[in-house]
Amino acid sequence: xxxxxxxxxxxxxxxxxxxxxxxxxxxxxxxxxxxxxxxxxxxxxxxxxxxxxxxxxxxxxxxxxxxxxxxxxxxxxxxxxxxxxxxxxxxxxxxxxxxxxxxxxxxxxxxxxxxxxxxxxxxxxxxxxxxxxxxxxxxxxxxxxxxxxxxxxxxxxxxxxxxxxxxxxxxxxxxxxxxxxxxxxxxxxxxxxxxxxxxxxxxxxxxxxxxxxxxxxxxxxxxxxxxxxxxxxxxxxxxxxxxxxxxxxxxxxxxxxxxxxxxxxxxxxxxxxxxxxxxxxxxxxxxxxxxxxxxxxxxxxxxxxxxxxxxxxxxxxxxxxxxxxxxxxxxxxxxxxxxxxxxxxxxxxxxxxxxxxxxxxxxxxxxxxxxxxxxxxxxxxxxxxxxxxxxxxxxxxxxxxxxxxxxxxx
Length: 410
Ligand code: GLA
Description:
The chain is an alpha/beta fold. Helices cover 31% and strands 21% of the residues. The longest helix is centred in the first third of the chain and has 35 residues, at 3-37. The site of alpha-D-galactopyranose (GLA) has 9 residues, from loops.
């Protein structure tokens, strides 16, 4: 081969390589955006753990799906029904994971079919360790096999825990399951449940769509247990600094909801739900939907608050004013709107008399209280309560909130 031929050959090879690189690059970025779009807004659903622990079975799951529809929760945006720990009992001789035949006599596929027939989606639970937190078989060493099995069953969401992790590197362990899910042939949302130990917000984007940031929630307003439980305020304080990491397709998971489980007052549950919405946190109800009382129902289906959580901008609120135990949080919304939440952490009423003009609620986005006038809508009273041109007065109950939506006045 003379020099000219070598040159032509090299040119062809290099341009072919560049085209292949471009092709694979495009494929990869399509895959990445498909992955993020699986949870373009924070996932909403129900999870069995907070109320039922290990007492999960087919009847409970089906009845919960029915209740999600009859209660109006599906209509309000909830879609995932997630079976947490204890559905699994062992593996067969080929290593396939087996659902408890006593509690799930018809298997997971038939349950998934039922849930899909109602227009809802099924979530399941496993663990990056060899055992789950309740000592059931985990996925370590079986990641790809389990992901294929979930896809075959029609699973839409996987919560993946961190017990018995045997000193693995968390990022590597979660990436392995993420790769397995991406290869399984079915879109499955990946919920990283590593309790915030290795700062998953720093590596979780693109690995999962949401990541837990704390130890397990307890049904209390402010409580920290040395064995690892945390209350609503404890979680809020952890999330306060994590706003740069949240956005469409990648969310800080503030933990599942306790609304309706009885450990907090009505005002505390309103605070819990309002702040989860402000934090753009996934909204996973954790109560018994079949027998929920009127007030829990009103909280969980407050569409105006849910709209703040699900806003397409995907911004997490910032705590921009911290006057001791009286705080003001703000969350920029699409179309130049803003959600503001006055959080009264004290044990006394906060008699608010708020001069919007004196404050600097300013975000680099389009919101500037000094240049524009905004209407103010109380998202719990469902009514307009004035504009930013005058003071806002309110008696905010102990441990309660005033949550409002500001819209540019036309
Ligand atoms: C861990 C998780 C909980 C729950 C239990 C189940 O504690 O953080 O959310 O899934 O395991 O055993």
